[in-house]
Amino acid sequence: MKKLILIAFTAFTLFSCSDDERSGAQRKVEYKIQGNYSGLLSTNRPDMYGEPTDSQVVEQLPWYEIIEYDTNVASATMKVEGTGGLPGEKITVETYMGGNLESINYGTADSDGVISLITTEAEF
Question: What is 2-123's CATH number?
Answer without folding.
Answer: 2.60.40
